[in-house]
Sequence to fold (284 residues):
Amino acid sequence: MKLIIGLLILSGCLAGGYIMAHGELLALWQPAELVIISGGAIGAFVISNPGKVIGKVLKNLPTLLQGSKYTKSLYMDLLGLMYDIFTKSRKEGLMALENDIEDPASSEVFNKYPRILADHHTVDFICDYLRLMVGGTMNTFELENLMDVELGTHHAEAELSSSALNRMADGLPGFGIVAAVMGVVITMGSLDGEVSEIGGHVAAALVGTFLGILLAYGVVGPMASALEHSAREETKFYECIKVCIIATLNGYNPQVAVEFGRKTLFSTERPSFIELENHVRGRT
Fold:
C-alpha cells in the first residue's frame, strides 16, 4: 500500500506541476524511449545478476505492496513464545523441550503463537539453537559466535535484492542518455523536414533523459531502499531471538531473559516493561 501511495504522490505532483507550467502531457508519452530505457536496464540486470538473485528480487518486490510484518504485536508474540519455552525448560529441564523442537507443529507451546509458527524460517532458527542447548555440547560463548555467523550470513543474503536494484537504479540515467542520443540521431536524419517534426524528435530525445532519471531516483532507487529497510527489520527480529537465548544460557530467569530481547527492539516496536510483563504472565 505504501508503494502505491508513494507512486501516486510522485506521478501526481510531477504531472500536476508540469500542467501548471502549461506543459502538454501527451508530449511526455514516448513509448519508444520507455522501451529503450526499461529494456536496456532489465537486460543489464539479467546479465549482471545470477539466477538466484533475480528470483529473490522477483519474490521480494510484491512484499513492498504490504506493510511491514514486524510489528509490536508480532514481537509480543515472539517474546511470549521465548518466555514460555524458557519457563518450561526451567521447571521441567531442557530435555522437556525435545518434543517441542522436533515437531513444533504439534507443540502446545508453539501453537499458542500461530503467527510465529507460520514462519518456518523463524521456527527453524529457534529450534536449531534449542537443540544445541539440549545437547549441551557448546558453551555460551561458542553458541553466540555461531549465531553471529548465521545472522551475518542471513543479513548479507537479505541485502542481495536491494543491492541488485540499487545497481539497476545507478544504470538507468545512463540508459536515459542512450535513448536521448538515439533520439538525436533520428533528429539529425530529419533536418530537412518540417520544424514541427524536428521539434517532436528533439522533445522525444529529451524525454528519454527525463525518464531515465525519473525511474532511477523516483521508482527503482526508492524500491531498493525499501527492500533494504525490510532486510534490516528481519535481521532485528532474529537478533531479538539471539539475545533472549543467550540471556537464558547465562542463567537469567525467563522474565529477565525476554527483557534482554525487548531492549534490542527499535522504539517504534518495543513494548513497555509492564505491557510485556502482563502479556507473558497472561500466557502462562
